[in-house]
Amino acid sequence: MNPNPALGVFFHWLGGLASASFYVPYRGVKLWAWETYWLVGGFFSWIIVPWTLALSMTRDLGDVLRQAPVSNLFWTFLFGMLWGMGGLTFGLTMRYLGMSLGMAVALGYTAVFGTLMPPIFRGVFATEVLRTASGRVILLGVAVCLLGIVFAGLAGMSKERELSEAEKRASIKEFALRKGLLVATFCGVMSACFAYGLAAGDPIKELTIRHGTPPLWQGLPVLVVLLLGGFTTNFIWCLILNARNHTSYQYFHSEIRGRVPSRDEEYILEAATDGRAEEMAVAVTVLAEQPTQAPMLSNYLFSALAGTTWYMQFFFYTMGETKMGRFKFSSWTLHMASIIIFSTLWGIALKEWRGVGTRTKWLVVFSLFVLVASTVIVGFGNYLGITTSTAAH
Asked: What DSSP character marks residue 163?
């Protein structure tokens, strides 16, 4: 397949838009606990949609997975499980920092580790990155991306200084900068394991191409294995929460028992590191005076839509990766930058920055500008790599 960095950047932008938007449908879920709608959406994110698309768009999926080296299947699956641990704490990051700042900090760590570690482990970081002009341009793009993340973080801290405690709580119910930064660090480092899993699945990509799969879809069989690992982590944790919070019945019965989510609580994401789930339940629920019916059909539909949208980020990611040439590791930076750009725009749309001063608004605008510039620089670096390779031949 001929590289096309411009098209690759476009695919990564589509993936970033999907990633930044997936949580919006969850706001339509009513009277379900987090663990219930997260697991329902997860079945679509990690099982139903990946298998459906891989079976319909690739060749001989079963044979490819049977023929794949066991070690690569193992590492791909394991990295998926580790990524799942980071994903579980993503919700807690949003709870303490909000969408804009939370994503900026968590994805900043993810961008660095997920972009630079794969070429380092492959042993090509010095030869293909540091010693080539195109590789150095891509590193510049990574640095610019991190600069944009810094400005996004500065905007969040400026917001904290400007708003009163009541105003902070109005936009983010449990804003806590120090606690949120600690959780975001864990979340970001562990979430980078997704990039490692994609790299571990390279032999699977080669196998599916040999079986006749178009190169554009070569990443879909890898996602089947990788997301199965993520599903395992989330499935276990959600079942634990279902048992602990007595919410298992919600999958099958519309009548809500015990505590019912309050009307002003649109969404709260539980997380693996939150050991005080009972206190959280008391804080965001009210005792039902009479049986309340959950809208089962719409809850399942909204959860399915959220889960499907989430998967589409990596559907487009694998497409974009095929267009980036020999510097495909740079795809991770493009993906992270795109997520932060669109999540910041969502934060603006959802009025998270309401009431802030001019300085904070300019920091938000500048962070967006720098992040967009980083995707252009990374794309240009890949273009240089292609032209240099063509000239050499």
From this structure: S
Do 158 and 363 touch, CB atoms closer than 8 A? yes
3-state percent breakdown (helix, strand, coil) of the chain, nearest 5 = 80, 5, 20
**Secondary structure class of 256 (helix, strand, coil):** strand
Tokens matching residue 378:
């990374």
- DSSP classification of residue 352: T
> Is the model's pTM score more than 0.85?
no
14, containing H or E segment: helix 5-21
Q: Would you say 371 and 145 are in contact if contact means Cβ atoms under 8 Å apart?
A: yes
3-state secondary structure of 31: coil
Q: Which two tokens stand for residue 380?
A: 């240009």
H or E element at residue 182: helix 177-191
CA distance 245 to 73: 35
Could you report the per-residue pLDDT of 140-179, keeping only the tens digit for each?
Answer: 988 898 888 888 878 877 877 776 666 555 555 666 777 8
Give the separation between CA 233 and CA 78, rounded to whole angstroms.
10
Computed over every residue of the chain, the mean pLDDT equals 82
d(CA 336, CA 16): 7
User: Which tens digit of pLDDT belongs to each residue from 61-100?
Assistant: 999 999 999 999 999 999 999 999 988 887 778 777 776 6
Q: Where are the beta strands (DSSP E) in the chain?
A: 255-256, 259-261, 285-287, 292-293
Q: What element of type H or E holds 214? A: none
Q: Which two tokens stand for residue 209?
A: 């191409």
Number of Cβ within 10 Å of residue 310's Cβ equals: 24
Q: What are the φ/ψ torsions at residue 255 (nearest 5 degrees)?
A: -75, 120
Each domain of the chain, given as residue ranges in start order, spans 5-386
Residues of the chain scoring pLDDT < 50: 262-290, 393
Q: Please check whether residue 62 is in contact with residue 207, taking contact to mean a CB–CB distance below 8 angstroms.
A: no
Rounded-to-integer distance, Cα 296 and Cα 294, Å: 6
CA pair distance 226, 80, nearest whole angstrom: 5
In whole angstroms, give the CA distance from residue 136 to residue 115.
14
Instruction: State the residue for tokens 């905007």.
Output: 155
DSSP 286: E
